[in-house]
Amino acid sequence: MAEKLPNSIQLEIVTPEKQFYCGEVDAVTVPGINGYMGILPGHAPLLSELKIGVITVRKGNDEERFFCSWGFAEILSDQVSVLAEQVEAASEIDHEEASSDKEKADSLLKSKDPDSDFPAALELWEKSVARLEVSAAEKK
Amino acid sequence: MPGGNLIDLRRRVRSVRNIRQITRAMKFVAASKLRRAQERVFSARPYANRMLAVLNSLASRVEPAGHPLLEVRDAEKVMLLVVTGDKGLCGAFNSNIIKSAVQFIEKEEVNESLSLTLVGRKGYEWFKKRPWPIKHQYLNIMSRIDFSYAQDIAGNVIRYYSETELDAVYLLYNQFKSVISQEIVLEPLLPIRRLEQVVEQDVLLDYIYEQPPAVIFDNLLPKHVETQIFRAMLESEASEQGARMTAMESATNNAEDMIDKLTLHINRVRQASITTEIIEVVSGANAL
Q1: Residues of B catalogued as catalytic
Q2: What's the complex ipTM?
Q3: Inter-chain contact A16–B47, Cβ cutoff 8 Å?
């Protein structure tokens, strides 16, 4: 394998609403269904479902984080395409709202009420935690 | 041209002028809405294209025949999903698509087993007086199209289909071609047509899968249906605004023509009356 590895990744993040991100990056981390995956240039072709989590994009010394809900990632050696249902940048996230969502989800999960919609509460919890992570990272 | 009274004519010119003002304003409103709708259509396209590319590359590796959403049955119970506008004053936009829907129903001879899902108030208002059963209607959502509506619609449709309450679902909507033209398209939504197997070098790539490909397929196919419906709604909205803009522009032009004609007529009538008065004065002076 004398093939030269690419130096960067062409990253494209699209949602049903719009093309969210398009550009060259050095590394990207996506929330795969079985856990976070760090992707560097020259990655083997991979197709994975994504769950609620944080997408981290590294470009030089800059890191950007995005909130991502359910989606797909197609990874080629020099190209990553993310199709996500919802993607939000830190600036789009309301910190207060996310915290109150988390509290609400927490109390729902702890209530042990047989009538409560457990999967929905769990989803809300996961989403609010990921959102908080994105907005907290921005504030540092 | 109506004869007579100058005051009445002037009044008429004034009212036509008001109409022209309104239609012109509506044209500008439609134009700005069109621009926004157009942007949304264009920005939604990358997602749809990527989705199709991933589906295709997956289909060339996995045997998809087993999936319930791909299963072709005898089309006995058919659902037609029609996307119309919520408002009128957009030329023949709504009546054209309703006409196509009726044509489809008549041609397919699926009268008894047909059900409808309607997006848009205009389609609903027309079809509720007709004998075909309406399963779902979504009204007043065209001005704030959201992906969650598409998910809702797709969820219902997929449920009916997998419970074999439906054998085929068609989607009828206006596709946005350009500002002045839209095209009515009929697309089979379910069963999902056998995906084209693109044989490129790309296919040779051996993906690593995080999950069994069949599982990914299970999740991806409903998503594909949602995307299709969402795209249809966006296309229809853009087409509607385009149609409204064109209709309002021609209404404005017609109003202008009418004002010109009426003004000419008013001047003639006025001149005629002045001439008569002069003749009266002159002949009166002569008689003295």
Answers
A1: 90
A2: 0.73
A3: yes
